Amino acid sequence: MKFPANLIEKARDIHSDRPKYCFRLDKVGASGLKVPIRVNGFVLLGNVNVYTSLPDNRRGVDLSRQNSVVYQVANSARSLEEFVILSAEELLDVIPYSDAAEVSVEVDIPQDEANAFGSYRTMVSSFISRAGKRKNRTRVELVGITACPCTQELIRTYLADIGESTSIPATHTQRSIGILDITLKEDHISHRDLAAIVEESMSSPTRTLTKRPEEASLVMLSLFNPKLAEDVVREMLFLLLERFPRIPDDAYVISSVRSLESVHKHDIYVERSAFVGDLRRELEGSKRP
Fold first, then answer.
1. What range does the domain containing 180 cover?
2. How many domains does the chain have?
């Protein structure tokens, strides 16, 4: 049964009613929209959240307008960053009673490292207010390998005690999930550059399509480059400051690692969150004698 179009004009617009309790709402909108988006020659299915603020004198938001905006912008956007920025700007144009808009998209980005194939997850968002406030956030999540230096040292000590030696002492290794999350007032930072930082901070990368020689190379690389989860979080922060020297002091960073432990029945989690200016001061202080 199709609703008669001529009756729409006769029905009261419930959304424009005055609410029973007049509070302003920060975010109202759709969570988990599936939107096809072009990224580096691929058409990927993004998980999109779209929100606008709602004034205290209006009962509801026009959800269909919100959804129409993101699907229309996705047809022409050339990048994830362009998609979220243009969508947020367009939302403020088509929803005049809202004073702020926020759009985010999460998607798995394909990698092709020496034909080994893989991916990393990224989330890009943009918040824009009519007052001129902007927040652009980029978050990447990537899986690497960490090799435990503590156990390796114990095994090295044991082998020396019994008169044995090896240039690559054994240790336990595990997959570790590294996350680097940065919020700026200016343009987004490149998610590909952030993913490279996360991967390089691990003992070694992971790969999807490998044969025995490649697997052996990854294992040897991790054993020659053992790191605690704490080491990985700190190295991600250092590489971020080193490779982006112009990133402003008021940018906010979250660096974290979840180590999926192979010898324990629990995971290990490490996190640091701070403004870039504070991280710079800590790094400079550590260089003093």
1. 133-289
2. 2
Each residue's pLDDT tens digit, 94-120: 999 999 999 999 999 988 665 567 889
CB atoms within 10 A of CB 59: 14
- 127, 89 in Cβ contact below 8 A? no
pLDDT band at 41 (very low <50, low <70, confident <90, very high): confident
Tokens of 52: 């606008």
Using CA atoms, how far apart are residues 85 and 101, in angstroms rounded to an integer?
10
Among 85, 104, 123, identify where a domain stops.
Answer: 104
CATH of the domain at 224: 3.10.270.10
Domain membership of residue 86 (yes or no) is yes
pLDDT in tens, 114-153: 556 788 999 999 999 999 999 999 999 999 999 999 999 9
Cα separation, 1 vs 196, in Å, equals 53
User: Is residue 124 a part of any domain in this protein?
Assistant: no
Closest CA to 190 of 79, 60, 44: 79
275 Cβ neighbours under 8 A, 6+ residues apart = 249, 250, 251, 252, 253
H, E, C per residue of 129-183: ECCCCEEEEEEEEEEEEEECHHHHHHHHHHHHHCCCCCCCCCCCEEEEEEEEEEE
